[in-house]
Structures are given as C-alpha cells and as structure tokens.
Amino acid sequence: MSVLVVGGAGYIGSHTVDWLCEKNYDVVVIDNLSTGHKESLNKKAKFYEGDLRDKSFMRKVFKDETIDGVIHCAAFSIVPESMKEPLKYYDNNTYGMNVLLEIMNEFGVKFIVFSSTAATYGEPKQVPIKETDPQVPTNPYGETKLAMEKMMHWSDIAYGMKFVALRYFNVGGAKEDGSIGEDHQPETHLTPIVLQVAHGTRDELTIFGDDYDTPDGTNVRDYVHVLDLAEAHRLALEYLLSGNESNAFNLGSSTGFSNLQIVQAAREVTGKDIPTKIGDRRPGDPSTLIADSTKARTILNWNPQYDDVKKIIKDAWTWETKNPQGYSDK
Ligand code: UDP
Asked: What is the DSSP-derived secondary structure letter of residue 109?
C-alpha cells in the first residue's frame, strides 16, 4: 500500500511525509519544487519531480505506483499574493485539483485527504468557527480552496470518490530536532517573520493593522503545530480507508492569539527584543479566526500533542537558529 503526497516537499507536506515514513507507510511524493524543497524529503519516500497539471506525468506516476490514497498539499497559499494574482491561484490550485481528481478517477483511486483552510470561511459570523458555518472567502486563495472542496464533493457524488477536507487554521512549528521546517521565499507568515527578526536576519516586524475589533486591535489567529497536522492527515487517511463517508474537519487549538501576543510569546521563548511597528491593514485579512475543532477530536480521535503556542514558537526557533537561510543552508 502506498500513500501519494502531492506537494510533499512543501512545509506541511514534508512534515506529513516524514511522519508517515516514521510510521512505516510507503510514501510516494509528487512535487514540482516551485515552492517546495527536495532537501526536506524523508529519504524513505519515493520522489517524482513534476507538475500535477501535467496529465502525462501524472498518468506515469499512477501507472508505476500502486496508490491507495492521496494527500493533496500542492497549492499556492499566500493571501496577499492571491489578491494580486488571482488567476495564478485558479490555475495552480483549482485546475491542479481538476487534473488530480480526473487521474485518480481514471486509475480507480478513491480516497483523498485535502489541505483546506480556515480562509474558506472568510469573516466569521461567530467564533469559534464550526464546520457547518457559512463559507464566504474574503480572498482568492480561500475561494480556490473552497472551489477545490466543492470539486471533491461533486466527484464523490458522481464517481464515489471519498474525501476529507482538513481546514487548517494557522500552522507553525517544525520537527523538534530542527531538521525540517518552514522555508518560503519570500516569507510572508507571521511566526517565521517574527523569529527572523529575533534572529537578526530581518530588522523589524510590521504588524498589519491595530484597529481591528479585537481586544488589542490586532488580528487574532488560532495556531496549530505542524506535527499535530501531520498526524491529522494520517488519521484522516485511515478514516477514509476504513470506509467512512466524506467529511470536513477544522484543525486548530480552539484558542486565539493576537499578533501582539505572538510577538510577546516569541520574546519570552527567544529572550530577544523583537522590534515592531504598526503598518496598514493587509487586504483580505479577516479580523479573528478561531477553530472549533471538537469534530476532529471526536470523529478522527485527533489529540494534539503540541497544543501550546510557546511550543510552536520554540520548535520554529530551533529550525530558524539551525537554518537561518532555510534549506539553502543544507
Ligand atoms: N502579519 C503581520 N505582519 C507580517 C505577517 C503577518 O502582522 O509581516 C499578520 C497578518 O496580517 C495576520 C497574521 O499575522 O493577521 C497571520 O498572518 P499569516 O500570513 O501568518 O497567516 P494567515 O492568517 O494569512 O493565514
């Protein structure tokens, strides 16, 4: 039995691949390395370099490998970039899913676990957010991910393809030994930027807006450790392989931290002064995103082990201090 991880050389993909390899799954990876890093791949995984929109490449992989289930982590995921270049997101994300489902159907592969996002909810009407709450994205990134969820839904109805959509909230942390971690070029996410400032590879952090309707005026987000996400992917795959129905699950800690609280936590973990300034709001940012992840905990038996924002920052700090230039240090 093999699990195919599409986008397995990215941040979440590589931690999931590593976790599955450690649990003795046979893992096949597809990645076009547009944002992923070959150095992040566990040596036990079998790697095919190519693009999921390339049907002949995809057919070759599905022909050569016996694939029982797919974990799909290959997508562009930067909110501000998606605001500037929406069609790039529709092409890679939405069309990429189209090809993947088409090829899976052609080869009779019936199970897919999908990296979805809290961004599919948009500005929530209530927090914590439940899976049944309205999905009204405020940016093209969230729109493409919502479209991808719907493509799986209709493929289930038409072709009997079962899916789990994992709606991640804000992901952080790294493998505890700092051997793999987060490396985006350019980096746009809050926790790695905060730690780059702590490390001195950046001068200061600009906090995007302090006039939101939140306790300290800065955005509130719900942080989840990448290793807990990796386990959630494994549990979701097993859930599907056991014959369960398609489903969607929020993955978060159910606790919100404001951007200022994250900076403060990072100061405490690193012992560094982290200079900040307040800038304009970033277009497309909802003010507060906090997950209700009761459903994942009860149905998938997901039991996050690193449910603590300081642990997330500590592990990301280990990665940052060992690899200040990311994978180009390797
Ligand atoms: N953020 C910030 N400065 C930065 C990067 C991010 O203030 O340099 C804020 C961003 O506006 C949001 C939060 O940090 O409120 C988390 O943003 P990130 O891009 O990490 O994740 P997102 O919530 O967009 O998925």
From this structure: -
